[in-house]
Amino acid sequence: MQILPLTQIGEVGPGDDLAALMIAALDAEGIVPAAGDVLVVTQKIVSKAEGRAVDLATILPGARAIELAAITRKHPPLIELVLRESTDVLRAVPHVLITRHRTGHVMANAGIDRSNIGPDGADLALLLPEDADVSAEALGARLSDHYGCPIAIVVSDSFGRPWRYGVVNVAIGASGLPALLDRRGLPDRDGRPLEVTQIAVGDMIATAAGLVMGEGGEGIPAAVVRGYSWSAPARPAAALVRALAEDLFR
Amino acid sequence: MQILPLTQIGEVGPGDDLAALMIAALDAEGIVPAAGDVLVVTQKIVSKAEGRAVDLATILPGARAIELAAITRKHPPLIELVLRESTDVLRAVPHVLITRHRTGHVMANAGIDRSNIGPDGADLALLLPEDADVSAEALGARLSDHYGCPIAIVVSDSFGRPWRYGVVNVAIGASGLPALLDRRGLPDRDGRPLEVTQIAVGDMIATAAGLVMGEGGEGIPAAVVRGYSWSAPARPAAALVRALAEDLFR
């Protein structure tokens, strides 16, 4: 398996044609995508292209945002945006605000990012895409059409974990591959039912790509994962979101 | 970056020389490890080589194990082993038992596995290595000596996540690389302090390797991750364990 970084992507702005940018970046690396290749793109460039930046100066924080901003010591307009993007607040302590995003993904700050917005964007916050599975689907359709073969897409974001330090990349959007692979009912080598029955393939591919993309200042917002094979039907990243009724750690 | 599966590893048994098995498997694939290569091995073969299999028929469950077995509908002797290997029970509901392993890692069943033990091992349970960081250190020393260059090691296991379906591989042991990479204080491209400050490199490498190793019945218990570069000092997988005082979801 290979992971190929796409280094030739400049600053992405609202309204940019992400598929055209990706095709140009693939060209620049001399990569010709083939069936089974997965293009991983960071949430950040998808959000930027979709115009999801919000000027924090235009956001008036409500009472709940002001209260949570005091607890978390974060910027009240930012917290207001987090609340608008969330259905539930799981934890709020100094410097930490963990919510359930309206798409169901549990993460810090509803995935809203204030870093790396661009030199002129001091007061901008970048929201997640409206629906990253839809973004992945659209990007995949364009690329599959262009290259004449199915290209899978993963939209990645970096998440913390409750009992482990450090972030890892996970999938918040996916198309063309089984983001969640269900192996329930299959026997293991000794004929016993498998104890591990579902594999978070979308997350694993996002994480693998994250190793070459880096975090923060590196500016490598996309990579191709080549040589991972699957036969199960495609499932979006929404399949990775654990049902609320099964949340033991709310 | 490349991820190369080691397919030529047979059944591993107690007392086997894991370093010798890895060298033979690398030879069989024609892989000559070089500086910067990371050898990822599953917890399962490390535990088997270290003789961590326990005959469940010899385990007498105590009152607490019997109580938790009734709640979780699991085998009482298995639960007794889980409790002996754990410092805390985080959640116990039907079919789910999440504990804090004595090494600090929070996971299902204290990482104890009943599948894939071998055709004659119907009543065997496989514990985690005594200390997977120590296992990684020992294996790394042997391989580095053999190949005449530093070889990093990651011992991987598959973990569930509280808010996401599916397992991913993480690092429970590491040597020769920064399992946790600290970037606090570094500015992003726009000169702002990075919001994401710690990266779980050990977990990410384990996850990437997991894509080629598969889960359950595939029998690919090791892989080489080639082309990931780092300059930070090595830190063991213990660095990935969040301090108890910072656990918001106990």
TrEMBL record, chains A, B:
Q: What's the gene?
A: cofE
Keyword Nucleotide-binding part of the UniProt annotation: yes
Q: What is this protein called?
A: Coenzyme F420-0:L-glutamate ligase
Which SUPFAM superfamilies does the entry mention?
Answer: CofE-like
State the organism of origin.
Sphingomonas naphthae
Tell me, what is one Gene Ontology molecular-function annotation carried by this entry?
A: coenzyme F420-0:L-glutamate ligase activity
Tell me the domain of life: Bacteria
Question: Which class of enzymes does this protein belong to?
Answer: ligase
Q: Which UniProt keywords apply?
A: GTP-binding, Ligase, Magnesium, Manganese, Metal-binding, Nucleotide-binding, Potassium
The residue ranges of the Coenzyme F420:L-glutamate ligase-like domain are 9-227
Its EC number is: 6.3.2.31
